[in-house]
Structure formats: C-alpha cells, structure tokens
C-alpha cells in the first residue's frame, strides 16, 4: 500500500509537474488572494479592521454582517429594527432574472445571427457584421440619454423586458463575434454532407452545427452571464426601484454617507459572487462534454 | 409608363431568382436569422448613437438658453483642453498596461487550464471569480488592500523589508496608474482566459500529434500551430481588452478620484457632461473616445485576419 | 432542439415579465402615488416604515427610490435632459442650486410653504436663485473639528485648540512627544470633501472666496484662502499630516480616525460622533469631542452644507410632493431619531437638544447657529468646475507637485475660465 503510494508519488513529482503545481498555486493566489481578503474583512468586527499590522484571520469572527444581509438578525437597520433582507432578496432575484434572461436572449440571437454571418451569403453581410461589432467601442455615456428617452416612451423603464433588451444590445456584439468565430472554425465538410443528404439548412444548424459549437456557445453564455451579472451603470439608470434593482446597485447604497462599512461591502461582494460561481461550475460540465462530442466525430 | 417599368423590373428580378433560386433562399434565411440583431442593435444602439453624434454639433448646455448649431467647435475645443490631454495620456497608459497584461496573462491561464485534467473545472471557476465582482465593490476592496496604513499590501512589503512606514501609492503617478491598471486587469483577465480556452479547445488534437511526430518543441508548436489557429479569437479578446480599458471608469474614480494624475477619459466625460453640465461638449468627447478605441482595436482585428488568411 | 428549448423558456420569461408589469400598473392606478428620490441613509427599511406615517395621514402612496449619494446627480441630469422628471420630490444639494437654477429644472416653492416654516430653517436662503426658493432644506450638515481629548491629555494638553495656528502647535507637541505619528487628519484626495475642507479653513481664517463680482479673493499672500492652503502645505511639510491623506476622502478619514491614529480631524462631520462612540467600529469610544477653531477665537464660524428637497418642473404630482415635503419638515425630530438625518429647523434642533436626544449634544445645536453659506453671493452655476479644480489642485499641492503660489493661481484661472463659458 505505502509502496504503491510512494511509487505513485515519485511518478508524480517530475520537475515539469512541480513547475505546474507552482504555477497553479500562483494563479490561485492571484485570483483568490484578494477574495480571501474580502472574506476575512467581512468576518471581522469593524473595529478590528484598523489594526497594524492587519489581522490575517478575524481575531473575533462574526457573521453579523451576513446575518444582517440575510435577515436572520433584525438589528441590521438601526432604531426600528427593520431588516435589509426583503430588499436583499428582491435584489438577488432581480440579478438572477435579468442575468438569465439577458444571457438567453443574447445567445439565442447571437447563435442564429453568428451562423448566418459565418455560413450564409446575403447582401450587406460584412457591412452589417462590421457595424454591429464596432459598437463594442461605444461608451455607455454616449447613448444613455437618447436610450433613456426611448425606454420612457416605450414604458420599459424598471421592467425586466427593458433591461433584457438593453443587455442584449450591449452584449450582442461580443457574443455574435465569438459565435461567428466558433462557427468559422468548424469543418465545413459535415454540413455539406448533411445538405447533400437533403437536410434543410435549419435542420443542419440545430442538429449538427450547434452541438459541435457547444464549447463556444457555453463560453459565450458564461461571458454574457457574467457581464450582465456585474452590470452597474445600466440598472443605475433603468432600475430605480426594487421591482428590478439588482445587487450591484443595492450594494453601494449600503455604505451610507455617515459611515463607510467596509465589512458590509465586502460581505455583499462575497455573496454576489456565489451565484456566478455555481453557474460556472455547472456550465463547465457542458464545456467538457461539448469538447468530447466534437472530438468523437 | 410607370407600370411598364415595374413590369420589366419584375421580369428581371424573376429571371434572376430563377437563375439563382438556392442563393435567394440562402439570402432570405440569412436575412431572417440576422433580423433580430439588426432590430435590437438598430433601435437601442445605432439610433441613440446617431442622435448623440448629431447633438454634439450643437451647443447643448442646459444652463444656457437655446441650442445653437456650432459645427465642429466642440471637437476643436477638445484638442486644446489641457485636462482632456492629461486624461488622454492617462488612458493610453492604462490601455497599454491592460492589453499587454490581460493578453499575456489570459493566454497563459488558458494554456494552463487546457493542460489540466479533472481539476480544470475548479481552477476555471476560481479564475473566473474576480470577474463576477461588481467593479465598484472590486475597486473598494482593492483600495482597502492598498490603504497605506492598514492595507495588507504594505504590511507584506514591510514584512519583506521592501518598504518602511506607509508607502503612499497614490502619491506617485506611475505607482497610481499601475495600481489602477492592476485592479482593472485582475477583474478583466478572466474574460481573455475564457475566450482563449474555448479557442484552444477548437484545435483538432491531430494537429498537435502531427507536430509531435515532426519533433517540434512545445514553443515551436505554440508558434506554428496554436497561435495561427487562435488568431481570430485572440483578436477578439484583445479588442475587448482595448475597448474596456478605454472605457475604464470605476477603478480610476474610486482609487484616484478627479486627480489629474490618474483621471481617465471617461471620468473626464462624466465630469464634463454630468457634473459640469456641458452636455454636448462631454458627448463630443465620448464620441472621440469611441473613435480612438475603434482605431486601436482595428489594428488587432486586421492583424488577426491576416494571420488566419496566411495559414 | 437546444435552440427551441431556449426560445420556449425565453418566451415564458418574457410572458411572465409582461404579466408582472401589467399587475404593477394596475396596482398603481388605485391611489395617488408620488416618487421620492433620496440618498440612501443606510437604513432604507426604517425610512420606508417612517414614510408609511405620511401615507396614513394623506392617503398618498410613496414610492421611495434610494441611490448612493454620488449617483443622484447623474440620474437627475439624465432624466431632465431626456425631458422627464426623475421623481416628484428629489434630493437637492446646496452645491447644485446655481446649475439647476440656471437650467430652470425645478419649481419655485416660495408661495407653497408658510413663511414661518421657511424662517425656522436658517439655511433655506442657500437654495434661492435669482430671488426664488427652489428647495426646502431637510438635512443639516456643516463642518466641525473632531478632537481626541484622550490623546491631547497624553501630551499634556488640556484644551481643544482654538485657532488654526494652535492646531499646528498642538500637533507639533503631540508628534514630538510621540503620542501619534501624524496628529492631524484632513481629506486630501481629489474629491469634493477636500474642497470643502479648504472652504472650512478659509472661513477659519475669517475670509471669503470671492468678492461681489466673483473676482477671486484667495490669491494674495495675506488672504484667508491663501493662508488656508499654506496651512495644509505646512502641516504636510512638518510631518503633522499623514501624506497618505492624498488618497482618502472625508468618509475614509472618519473611518481611519476611529482607529485612533490621529488626534485632530479637521473638517469632520457633525454625525461622526455616532461612529466614534460605537465600540464595534471605534477604538476611541468616549474620547472625542467636537470643537471649532478660528483665527479670531471670538468669532467661531463654520460652513453650511445643507441638503434640500425640490420638485422638478415636469413632475405630474406637484401638490402631493409639496404635501410630502411639508410632512417631512414637521416630523424632523422623529426622522432624526430613526435614521439620523440632522434637522434643518432651529426649533427641531433645540427641542432635541433639550430632550438630550442629540448625538454630540448641545454643541451641535450651538455650532449649527454659527453656519454660514460658503458663497454669500449664492452658489454659482460654475461651482462644479470650480470645486473640481480646487480638489485636484489641493491634491497636487499635497503630493508636492506644485507650490501654494502656483496652486492659487491655477484655481483662480480655472474659476475665471469657468465663468466665461
């Protein structure tokens, strides 16, 4: 038993593998170090934050900031003891709904459009594609006032539909560009074979091309989901109430002008990254599956 | 007369349709698949963009009566505005740092992920996390870490005897710009990593095997197989880096405020249009920012296309 | 397959959205509703509970929209430029009156409120533009010095410093006796709080920023504004002010002062004591008192930074909004107790002080009587550019990039070019 283990260890510990282990450790330190620090700060009593040198672990850990956010403890608001929880819950739901709707809307339109831009010939194809991609460079401030006027006229301010449409317009260019590039990288032979067999173009797209483009589709979905999830400036203007106000807009409000609570901000930040974490771990499976499916054929 | 013209046109069109019936069907399908894109982008981006571009030629200043047409005056004034010049220099530094670091780091992360087995799922999730943090929270988090007195960064540097006392990052323009770029890169690097990972997975394994049989070194394989086949996505990632760095706001605003050492172009737009209420002047600047980031990005796009074609 | 599944889900999501929207609209049609846009007091739920009292009294529903303070002005600007009212009753900061007055975005309120009520609010005059009142003050704010008496005593000082020079003298003693490394804290980041600190210091030296014709008064070496800037430069030069202050806004200075690493916080807020006396947030519980200093100690002065509520011209519920603002004005003491919004009515402050309910005690009521508008001529339309130039320039001085002479010239130039635009 122990012999087998040591054999496996000696096998494992080639210089290349050690090097890779060090690299992984560095990457983890870079990515998770600051998040650990936020977690550490969020578990401290505010008074322990101003220690020199800073505490590497909370000296008197407390879940007070979290229980305040999650409504387990009423004292989060002063005086009357009203809880932040109803708003935190509403904001979480709003974040999830808009992120899911925005992502679905974007990738459906981007997958269909990306295929057309990659494989179908139609007049104005390159010009339209170029113009759409060029809008990546449009700063939000440039369009916000006419867009606000338009959304007011359509009655879409503070609605999920309005936000979903704006997110689609903001993240379609990148999603479309990514999807087109993934479609272009697929071998044409499979589609041509299907067409010779008499399959329609749409049948080929849904049955052959999309399954092959799965890793790209998932990557695009992850990119879009996270982009929507952390949106701040759009909902700041278009989500005035908790009908649609997301976490990203709610969190800075927690810092009142009278009192800058780093612990609370950090705690809210930590809670805000949990759903994307779950989504990424979950979608990742499809990323791998899509890959094996592609390699098999 | 009109009628006969229409008739002859119809004949021509029908003839053409008959000649290339499948082409027309393809065009029709292509058009309908792209239609949602055109509707959404047209209504929500191009229409507002054209409005703003038009308005930048007028003097729109809510504090002054009237909105006279002033042609290119806003644009010519921008070129002589010392604050705009300072913000431009700051932004160009930030773009340079962000694009270089995000591209090198993102490709390295993607290669590392690609080489991993079962643990990849977890490493990818860990790498992506920074990107999920809203940039306002992210900037506040880092401002606390770089706090000269209580921050963890100075504590570590003090522990390593690299500094003594409180090193004030914001008091040195280079350090302050690097810090802002770092906070931005920490958040945006995962985007490049995800795009490049997906691109790497699109490369058929046979090509790597062929390179191995030819006895190519891993560096050689990277240059001659990986890079050319991922040039397109790389251009996308670099364009994305460029554009987001040109649009950098929260990081510079929270870490440097209105300081001329670190003020970015978007902060200048914000201050001009929304604080000082010189609306069309600020909008003109935002349009110049857009044109500048388009110009820089197009270099990568044309480069990327060239690589793919030569292969 | 996949595509169809997704589009079905999307259609379902969109249908749900449409349904909820309809329901919302139906509910809103029943009673008159006003929207109120205020900064978040960090206690939204309590604020909402309070406002139910107004609904019970008036039958008017309140849709409270809160934002963090920095985001309110861009929201107002976006809405007004787009031609819609951001809300019916809106936050109106003292610094916006010049701009919003010139833009004619708000409704004159003179004939809508009792003269007696307005008279009870000494800072109401700050919100007049060309003789008309555009905002009713609801939140009082001014600047004080927070002094950590426990640290002063350690250095053998028994009294809070009374003049700006005394502050530096005491700071020197504190530093020499190694009580603290950097005895004085003052915000020096390129942000509004830094400009405010300079105005406050200028007042301490008994001066104004501009004359009647808006000619700068701070460029001469013996002017109050010049001395104020020199004071900051001197403090930094002598190591009495932490160079790290260049990265701190006024809120961050408060958080840092609660850590006990400075003895005198210049230009603190009248609500900081709540933080300093909270054992969960502070290491200086019971040690801090407010004080004012002036070059002429017989004439203590501070600056008024009140916030008001105004009604945009395109609001469709102006009368209801007026009722709401009246209700708030009449309930200032309860609102203060619940969410710490410092009253603007002298009678409310005095009542609270008498009942011992004022954080910081009688000092707060006393100092609020010493407040003066930063611009006795009224806040100009170009204030925002001026203040941006002030904070960026002071930040440069603090980083040692330019001299005080160059700085006052730079600020004066910027003020003049802003006036010409």
Describe this structure in words.
The complex is a heterotrimer of chains A (297), B (311) and C (421). Chain A has 297 residues and is mainly alpha-helical. Chain A folds into two domains: 2-62, no CATH class; 85-296, MetI-like (MetI-like fold, Orthogonal Bundle). Helix content of chain A is 73%, strand content 0%. Chain B is mainly alpha-helical and 311 residues long. Chain B has two domains: 1-55, no CATH class; 74-310, Orthogonal Bundle (MetI-like fold). Helix content of chain B is 77%, strand content 0%. Chain B contains 14 helices and no strands. Residues 1-29 of chain C have low confidence and may be disordered. By secondary structure, chain C is an alpha/beta fold. Chain C is built from 17 helices and 13 strands. Chain C has helices at residues 2-28, 44-58, 69-81, 97-103, 115-119, 149-154, 164-176, 192-204, 224-237, 250-257, 272-276, 318-330, 332-339, 346-354, 362-368, 383-398, 404-420; strands at 33-39, 61-67, 89-93, 128-129, 132-133, 136-139, 144-148, 184-185, 264-268, 288-291, 302-304, 307-310, 371-373. Classes of the chains: A mainly alpha (297), B mainly alpha (311), C alpha/beta (421). Chains A and C meet through helix 4, helix 6, helix 7, helix 9 and helix 12 of A and helix 1, strand 1, helix 2, strand 2 and helix 3 of C. Chain C: It comes from Faunimonas pinastri.
How are the secondary structure elements laid out?
The complex is a heterotrimer of chains A (297), B (311) and C (421).
Chain A: H1 2-12, H2 15-42, H3 64-70, H4 85-119, H5 125-134, H6 140-153, H7 160-185, H8 189-196, H9 201-212, H10 214-229, H11 233-238, H12 247-254, H13 262-296
Chain B: H1 2-19, H2 21-55, H3 73-79, H4 82-114, H5 120-132, H6 135-145, H7 152-159, H8 173-201, H9 205-213, H10 218-229, H11 231-246, H12 250-256, H13 265-275, H14 279-310
Helix pairs in contact in B: 4-8, 4-11, 5-8, 6-12, 8-11, 8-12, 11-14, 13-14
Chain C: H1 2-28, E1 33-39, H2 44-58, E2 61-67, H3 69-81, E3 89-93, H4 97-103, H5 115-119, E4 128-129, E5 132-133, E6 136-139, E7 144-148, H6 149-154, H7 164-176, E8 184-185, H8 192-204, H9 224-237, H10 250-257, E9 264-268, H11 272-276, E10 288-291, E11 302-304, E12 307-310, H12 318-330, H13 332-339, H14 346-354, H15 362-368, E13 371-373, H16 383-398, H17 404-420
Parallel strand pairs in C: 1-2, 1-3, 8-9, 11-13
Antiparallel strand pairs in C: 3-12, 4-5, 6-12, 7-9, 7-10
């Amino acid at each position: 038993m122990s012999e087998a283990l040591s054999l496996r260890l000696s096998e494992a510990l080639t210089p290349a593998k050690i090097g890779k282990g060090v690299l992984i450790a560095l990457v983890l330190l870079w990515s998770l170090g600051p998040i650990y620090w936020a977690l550490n700060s969020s578990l401290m009593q505010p008074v322990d934050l101003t220690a020199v040198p800073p505490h590497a672990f909370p000296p008197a850990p407390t879940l007070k900031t979290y229980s305040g956010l999650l409504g387990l403890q009423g004292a989060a608001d002063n005086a009357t003891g009203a809880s932040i929880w109803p708003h935190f819950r509403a904001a979480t739901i709003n974040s999830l709904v808009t992120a899911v709707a925005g992502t679905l809307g974007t990738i459906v339109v981007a997958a269909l459009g990306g295929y057309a831009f990659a494989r179908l010939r139609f007049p104005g194809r390159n010009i339209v594609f170029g113009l759409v991609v060029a809008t990546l460079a449009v700063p939000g401030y440039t369009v916000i006032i006419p867009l606000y006027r338009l959304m007011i006229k359509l009655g879409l301010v503070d609605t999920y539909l309005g936000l979903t449409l704006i997110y689609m317009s903001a993240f379609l260019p990148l999603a479309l560009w990514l999807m087109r590039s993934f479609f272009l990288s697929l071998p044409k032979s499979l589609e041509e074979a299907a067409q010779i067999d008499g399959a329609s173009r749409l049948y080929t797209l849904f049955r052959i091309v999309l399954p092959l483009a799965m890793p790209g589709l998932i990557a695009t979905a992850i990119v879009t989901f996270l982009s929507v999830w952390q949106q701040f400036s759009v909902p700041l203007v278009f989500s005035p109430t908790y009908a649609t106000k997301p976490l990203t807009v709610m969190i800075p409000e927690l810092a009142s002008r009278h009192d800058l609570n780093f612990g609370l901000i950090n705690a809210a930040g930590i809670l805000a990254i949990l759903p994307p974490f779950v989504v990424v771990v979950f979608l990742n499976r499809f990323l791998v599956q899509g890959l094996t499916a592609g390699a098999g054929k | 007369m009109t009628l006969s013209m229409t008739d002859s046109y119809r004949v021509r069109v029908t003839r053409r349709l008959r000649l290339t019936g499948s082409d027309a069907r393809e065009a029709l399908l292509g058009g309908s698949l792209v239609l949602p894109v055109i509707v959404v982008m047209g209504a929500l981006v191009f229409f507002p963009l054209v409005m703003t571009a038009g308005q930048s030629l007028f003097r729109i200043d809510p504090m002054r009566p009237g909105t006279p047409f002033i042609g290119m005056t806003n644009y010519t004034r921008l070129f002589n505005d010392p604050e705009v010049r300072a913000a431009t220099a700051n932004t160009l530094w930030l773009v340079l740092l962000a694009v270089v670091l995000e591209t090198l780091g993102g490709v390295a992360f993607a290669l590392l992920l690609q080489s991993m087995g079962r643990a990849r799922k977890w490493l990818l999730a860990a790498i992506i996390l920074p990107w999920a943090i809203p940039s306002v929270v992210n900037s506040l988090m880092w401002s606390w870490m770089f706090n000269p007195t209580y921050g963890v960064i100075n504590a570590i540097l003090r522990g390593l005897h690299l500094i003594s006392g409180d090193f004030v990052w914001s008091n040195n323009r280079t350090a302050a710009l690097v810090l802002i770029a770092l906070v931005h890169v920490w958040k945006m690097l995962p985007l490049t990593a995800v795009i490049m990972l997906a691109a790497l997975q699109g490369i058929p394994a046979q090509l790597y095997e062929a390179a191995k049989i030819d006895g190519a070194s891993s560096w050689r394989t990277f240059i001659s197989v990986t890079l050319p086949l991922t040039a397109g996505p790389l251009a996308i990632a670099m364009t994305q880096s460029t554009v987001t760095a040109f649009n950098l706001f929260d990081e510079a605003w929270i870490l440097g405020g209105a300081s001329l050492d670190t003020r970015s172009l978007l902060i200048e737009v914000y201050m001009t249009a929304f604080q000082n209420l010189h609306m069309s002047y600020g909008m003109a600047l935002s349009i110049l920012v857009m044109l500048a980031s388009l110009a820089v990005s197009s270099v990568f796009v044309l480069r990327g296309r060239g690589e793919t074609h030569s292969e | 397959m996949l595509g169809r599944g997704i589009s079905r889900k999307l259609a379902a999501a969109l249908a749900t959205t449409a349904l909820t929207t309809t329901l919302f609209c139906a509910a809103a049609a029943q009673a008159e509703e006003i929207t109120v846009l205020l900064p978040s007091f960090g206690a939204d739920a309590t604020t909402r509970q309070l406002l139910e009292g107004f609904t019970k009294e008036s039958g008017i529903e309140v849709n409270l929209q809160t934002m963090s303070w920095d985001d309110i002005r861009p929201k107002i600007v976006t809405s007004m430029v787009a031609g819609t009212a951001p809300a019916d009753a809106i936050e109106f900061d003292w610094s916006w009156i010049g701009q919003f007055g010139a833009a004619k975005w708000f409704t004159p309120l003179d004939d809508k409120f009792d003269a007696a009520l307005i008279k009870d609010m000494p800072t109401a005059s700050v919100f007049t533009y060309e003789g008309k009142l555009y905002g009713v003050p609801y939140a009082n704010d001014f600047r004080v010095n927070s002094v950590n008496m426990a640290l002063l005593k350690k250095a053998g000082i028994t009294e809070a410093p009374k003049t700006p020079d005394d502050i530096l003298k005491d700071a020197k003693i504190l530093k020499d006796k190694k009580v603290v490394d950097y005895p004085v804290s003052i915000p020096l980041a390129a942000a509004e709080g830094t400009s405010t600190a300079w105005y406050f210091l200028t007042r301490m030296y008994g001066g104004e920023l501009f004359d009647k014709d808006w000619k700068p008064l701070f460029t001469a070496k013996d002017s109050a504004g010049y001395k104020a800037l020199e004071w900051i430069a001197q403090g930094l030069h002598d190591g009495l002010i932490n160079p790290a202050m260049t990265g701190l806004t006024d809120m961050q200075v408060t958080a840092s002062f609660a850590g006990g690493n400075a003895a005198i916080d210049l230009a603190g807020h009248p609500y900081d004591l709540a933080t300093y006396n909270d054992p969960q947030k502070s290491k200086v519980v019971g040690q801090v008192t407010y004080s004012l200093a002036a070059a002429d100690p017989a004439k203590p002065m501070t600056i008024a930074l009140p916030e008001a509520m105004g009604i945009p011209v395109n609001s469709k519920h102006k009368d209801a909004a007026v009722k709401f603002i009246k209700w708030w004005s009449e309930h200032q003491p309860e609102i203060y107790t619940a969410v710490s919004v410092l009253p603007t009515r002298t009678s409310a402050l005095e009542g609270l002080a008498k009942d011992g309910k004022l954080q910081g005690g009688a000092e707060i009521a006393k100092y609020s009587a010493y407040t003066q508008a930063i611009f006795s001529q009224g806040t100009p339309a170009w204030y925002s550019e001026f203040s941006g130039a002030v904070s960026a320039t002071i930040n440069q001085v603090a980083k040692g990039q330019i001299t005080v002479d160059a700085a006052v010239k730079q600020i004066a130039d910027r003020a003049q070019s802003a006036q010409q635009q």
